[in-house]
Automatic annotation (TrEMBL):
<feature type="domain" description="Response regulatory">
    <location>
        <begin position="3"/>
        <end position="119"/>
    </location>
</feature>
<dbReference type="InterPro" id="IPR011006">
    <property type="entry name" value="CheY-like_superfamily"/>
</dbReference>
<dbReference type="GO" id="GO:0000160">
    <property type="term" value="P:phosphorelay signal transduction system"/>
</dbReference>
<dbReference type="InterPro" id="IPR039420">
    <property type="entry name" value="WalR-like"/>
</dbReference>
<dbReference type="InterPro" id="IPR001789">
    <property type="entry name" value="Sig_transdc_resp-reg_receiver"/>
</dbReference>
<dbReference type="GO" id="GO:0003677">
    <property type="term" value="F:DNA binding"/>
</dbReference>
<dbReference type="Pfam" id="PF00196">
    <property type="entry name" value="GerE"/>
</dbReference>
<protein>
    <submittedName>
        <fullName>DNA-binding response regulator</fullName>
    </submittedName>
</protein>
<dbReference type="InterPro" id="IPR016032">
    <property type="entry name" value="Sig_transdc_resp-reg_C-effctor"/>
</dbReference>
<dbReference type="Pfam" id="PF00072">
    <property type="entry name" value="Response_reg"/>
</dbReference>
<dbReference type="InterPro" id="IPR000792">
    <property type="entry name" value="Tscrpt_reg_LuxR_C"/>
</dbReference>
<keyword id="KW-0597">Phosphoprotein</keyword>
<feature type="domain" description="HTH luxR-type">
    <location>
        <begin position="134"/>
        <end position="199"/>
    </location>
</feature>
<feature type="modified residue" description="4-aspartylphosphate">
    <location>
        <position position="54"/>
    </location>
</feature>
<dbReference type="GO" id="GO:0006355">
    <property type="term" value="P:regulation of DNA-templated transcription"/>
</dbReference>
<keyword id="KW-0238">DNA-binding</keyword>
């Protein structure tokens, strides 16, 4: 029996995922939650084989939670579900060491097969998305620049970003100038748009 934890913040979607997986004789949903912050503690108590995680969760996002699981509970394999099917998002997922990546609009039978594939030790990735990622441009930003841009994207000003990341406000302004330049953006807002559309944020 493959034990699965389901993390999805939309109640109807989570209920549908649990119901779909419940139809499979070899799969059992042992835990479910609605936020990224709940995933690790729940996995520590329920000990699932697979964590099926929506990429866009409140609290910790799905990729951060998946990376945390990989570090703290390496025996729990992760399958990311997303409606954001951009190549950049897939690259971020693979960098977070996820074991599978599936679009939410995939046929229902593909979900159960993806769970089985990941449980068997295979890496399961949506085929069209994998080809697109192969051809796509890599993110030109460093991990630190992405952190700065992510905080800027939620409205933090340079002083707030500096306090959050233990940097000086001047260093943060330099990072933001570099980010705008690297992305050939008109300004900070445009840089956020470009990064989001490319799946880098």
């Amino acid at each position: 029996m493959i034990k699965v934890l389901v993390a999805e913040d939309m109640h109807i979607v989570r209920g549908a995922l649990v119901a779909l997986l419940g139809l499979e004789a070899d799969i059992e949903v042992v835990a479910e939650c609605a936020s990224g912050d709940e995933i690790l503690p729940l996995a520590q108590s329920a000990r699932p084989d697979i964590a099926l995680i929506d990429i866009d969760l409140p609290g910790k996002d799905g990729l951060t939670a998946a990376a945390e699981l990989h570090e703290q509970l390496p025996g729990v394999r992760t399958l990311i579900l997303t409606s954001l099917g951009s190549p950049g998002t897939l690259r971020r997922a693979l960098a977070a060491k996820v074991n599978g990546f599936l679009r939410k609009d995939a046929p229902a039978d593909r979900l159960a097969n993806a769970v089985r594939g990941v449980a068997a030790g295979r890496r399961v990735v949506d085929g069209d998305l994998a080809l697109a990622a192969w051809d796509s441009e890599e993110c030109p930003l460093t991990a630190r620049e992405i952190e700065v841009l992510r905080l800027a994207s939620v409205g933090s000003d340079p002083t707030e970003i500096a306090a959050e990341l233990f940097l000086s406000a001047g260093t943060v302004r330099n990072y933001l100038t570099t980010i705008v330049s690297k992305l050939s953006a008109r300004n900070r807002v445009d840089a956020v748009r470009i990064a989001r559309e490319s799946g880098w944020l």
